Amino acid sequence: MSSVGLLIILVMYLALLFFIAHWAEKKRNSKWTNNKYIYSLSLAVYCTAWTYYGSIGVAADSGLSYLSVYIGPIIIIPAWILILKKIIRISRVNKVSSIADFISLRYGNSRFLGAVVTIICLSGILPYIALQLKAISESFHLVTQTVSNKFIFDDSTTYVAIALALFSSYYGTRYVDASEKRRGIVTAVALESILKLVFFLMVGIYVTYFVFDGFEDIYQKASLLENFHKKNTIGGLPQAINWFFLCILSIFAIFLLPRQFHVSVIENNRENHINTAIWLFPLYLLLFNIFVYPIAWGGNVLFDGKSVNSDTYSLLIPQFFGNKVLTVLVFLGGFSAAISMIVVSSIGLSTMVSNNLIIPYGFLGQLQNENQDTINKKIVNTRKVGIFSLIIISYFIYRFFALDYNLFSIGLVAFVIIAQLAPAFFGALFWRRGSRLGAVWGIIVGFVLCLYTLLIPYAIGISSAQTTFISKGLFGLELLKPFQLFGLDYLNPVPHALYWSLLFNFITYVAVSVSFKGNYRERNYAEMFLDINKYITNHENAFVWKGTAYRTDIEKVLIRFLGEERTKRAMNIFNLKYNVDKNEELADARLIKFSENLLTGHIGTASAKILISSVVKEEKITLPEVLKILEESKENIIINKKLIETSNELQEISAKLQEANESLIRKDKQKDEFLDTVTHELRTPITAIRASSEILHDDDDIPDDLKKQFLQNIISESDRLNRLIDKILDLEKFETGKQKVNLSNNKIVETIEKSVEPLIQLINNKNISFYIEGSHVLEAYYDEDRIFQVMTNLLSNAIKFCPDSNGLITISVNDRIDHILVQVSDNGKGISKNDFENIFDKFYQSTNQNFKKPIGSGLGLAICKQIIEHHKGKIWASNNVTGGACLSFTLLKNKN
Amino acid sequence: MKKILIVDDEPNIVMSLEYTFKKNSFEVFIARDGQEALDILQSNLPDVIILDVMMPYVDGFETIERIKQNPKLNHCKIIFLSAKNKDSDIEKGLSLGADAYLTKPFSIKKVVDQVFELLH
């Protein structure tokens, strides 16, 4: 394939990525760019060109060693649920924008420590980026079958590097606040993750099933090669230990590599996306590794005896068989893997360089005298130039330090350097006593050991200078041989360097931390980092600070960096959150922390601290004082929490009380009404009795027939009084549950007929037509005496409501699935709809009666309702289609 | 001959009152609820009205309001005779313009005395 042709494809591919990034940036809140899958896939930036090409090389040359790099992450990923969540919370709350910020914040906004971490990252990652460029360049030349041009500007890969640098610096610095999310980049990276996996699987399937006849075939052919068995055994305990160290190394890498920190922490939108990542990301790694072995050994079989770079088998095999399309696709996959690493790493690094190196050490002083626009421009430009130069510098590293080592070993060297951050980093999360000095010295000592045991010997190897440093040791001392330090001779160079550097790093960190206490700020942040869950909602409270500061001074600083409007908005939020009066003159600790946070995203934590402390007068606080204040604030938080809980409980109780009270009032009112009506109902017959008696007593000359009439009145009113008392007691018994019902199976129609008997005279007197419809065999489960009572009541009502002529009463008994339905209909005026429910209330007398007050007491239907409900039946009122009221009730057929 | 209208839905109570006032030489009209009373008042102008409160259809309170709207009935003395004996009920009755409020059960003698007192 021609260089121009491939370049055109590359440009088109880059244009696609530009477009995706642009689109995602525009749709930054859409669910397409903002979901758990995008997050999980973006983590696969872990799989670089090193994975894509280098794994195959390692598998071909030394068997299973390549796996350790994937096993490490898979082992530790479940712990993300705890650890990564904690890191994300701390970073979110404190507006952390890089791993350097994270570490330096914990150790008291240390400017120096931030710079040290940045330098470590630079020295580890720049060669790593160079490695990616090397992969792009070599694969480019391989696909186009050209050779690398000695003159740098004639080499097409130079332009690829420049294009990449432009792309990253454009999209990596859209926001001044580096803790902002970059949706565009992340979405593009996720897309690249998919592409590189798909293309890799394609070539894997191609090699396994089209070039060979499946896994079995490859294995059989490969096992005939010499060295096969040697390469594919672990190699005893020493090699197992090597393996173990490599696993440990990659465990650190998944947390500490700037690009991993960036995608997993800074770009994390929601904590629960982790829940998806912990299965999807390992699955991704697994898929990526399925075909590594077949391709590697397939390549070994195909190219046995030829001198080819095993790293490039995945390109060489399709090319060997003339499959141009697949060759290009594989190349694009590798290109994706490389550029996603380059882009994310360079963004992370440039943020570190600007926020932890250039701004705090360079022009922080200058910035203080500029206005907001200039400041923002300067910051963004610093980062833009930073990204661009990082990539270009890496390219030069690749070009001028030939980097003869294979991809795998350079990648591991980067890992070892980055691993030096491990003690300080994990100490930040789990150890209160860890101090700034401990962290600084630990990292430096570790790095020096790295230099001695790994970088210098490798550099010597590259330069091919004649020296006895490696074989005889420094000054010819056996114990100081860089690859067998202190006589440790069974580890490979990388695990060996890791072991010694981390050991000394760790010991130094612990020893210095224990010997020299940190200042109060370190201890303050230690508490916040360790107990982040406690402080997450109002972490400003946990910040200890004493001194005098004027709000106006602080606001001035903020305005310079954030602009007037954002500062105003932020201050409003602060005032609201902590209920602070906006006219308050003095700033408190919370405002100091709040303001530092606002600035941190722009200029890094160290600079933020320096800036704020330039306008405030801080008093020294001793460590015990800090601890005391923290203890108090912790207690306050707990007390606060308890208070809130208690007050919630109280509120609940008071709501319940109010409800109970209302229901009492309602019941009380009902009781009042009930008593009112009862007394009225009782007084009425008494009144009649008293009046009649008085006349009989006082008047001696009443005619006999009238005398009899008055006496009759007294008798009937007394009876009425008695009936009323009976009914009230009845109702009372039902309502308090004292009334027992004696349930048994009875023939319902018979009961109805019995209840009609005493009333038949009344019915006949009023000339009412009367019918009972229903089968005599129907049985239901009820207390006959009680249903008798119900029927009497309903019938009396019906008789009462029937018109004076042509009255009609129908009782129908219907068989339903599990119950019997009884309906009593009349042809009276019917019931007003409003009354359907109320007529079953005690003493309720319809507002719509056009006849005189009914003879009843107003308790009849209330008692009926009680009786029916005690039978687990229902009773209701309705109107007939033809007019007239219809009262219905149901009775269960059987016991259940 | 003085005229009296007795408005009550309890026939036995009405009977006692009717007997007593007739004996005291009144012309007695009887209504069994507010509406009936108002109908009677269309064509008759009694001197006294004895009014129950709790009655179906149109109760005593509503009846007195309607009576008070008719200027022809201004001279009518109105006595409530009710089982509702709470202070609030009595107050309401008197505030609606009743001349007296007697509670049930009552002494017939006192009712008669009250009627005569109002008429003199």
Automatic annotation (TrEMBL), chain A:
Q: Which GO terms describe its molecular function?
A: phosphorelay sensor kinase activity; transmembrane transporter activity
Protein name per its UniProtKB record: histidine kinase
InterPro entries, per database record: HATPase_C_sf (IPR036890), HATPase_dom (IPR003594), His_kinase_dom (IPR005467), HisK_dim/P_dom (IPR003661), HisK_dim/P_sf (IPR036097), Na/Glc_symporter_sf (IPR038377), Na/solute_symporter (IPR001734), Na/solute_symporter_CS (IPR018212)
Give UniProt keywords alphabetically.
Coiled coil, Kinase, Membrane, Phosphoprotein, Transferase, Transmembrane, Transmembrane helix, Two-component regulatory system
Annotated coiled-coil positions are 640-670
Q: What membrane topology does the UniProt entry give? A: Multi-pass membrane protein
GO CC terms in record? membrane
Query: This protein's superkingdom?
Result: Bacteria
Recorded catalytic reaction(s): these are: ATP + protein L-histidine = ADP + protein N-phospho-L-histidine
Membrane-crossing residue ranges in chain numbering: 6-24, 36-53, 65-84, 112-131, 151-173, 185-212, 240-257, 278-297, 325-349, 385-401, 407-431, 438-460, 497-516
Q: Which EC number(s) does the record attach to this protein?
A: 2.7.13.3
Query: PANTHER family, from UniProt?
Result: HISTIDINE KINASE 1, TWO-COMPONENT HISTIDINE KINASE
Q: Which SUPFAM superfamilies match?
A: ATPase domain of HSP90 chaperone/DNA topoisomerase II/histidine kinase, Homodimeric domain of signal transducing histidine kinase
Q: Where in the cell is it found?
A: Membrane
CDD domains xrefs: HisKA, SLC5sbd
TrEMBL record, chain B:
Single GO term (MF):
DNA binding
Gene3D superfamilies noted in UniProt: 3.40.50.2300
Q: Which residues carry this modification: 4-aspartylphosphate?
A: 52
List, alphabetically, the SMART domains matched.
REC (SM00448)
**GO terms classed as biological process:** phosphorelay signal transduction system
- Keyword Phosphoprotein among UniProt keywords: yes
Q: Which PROSITE patterns match?
A: RESPONSE_REGULATORY
Mind telling me what this protein is named? Response regulator receiver domain-containing protein
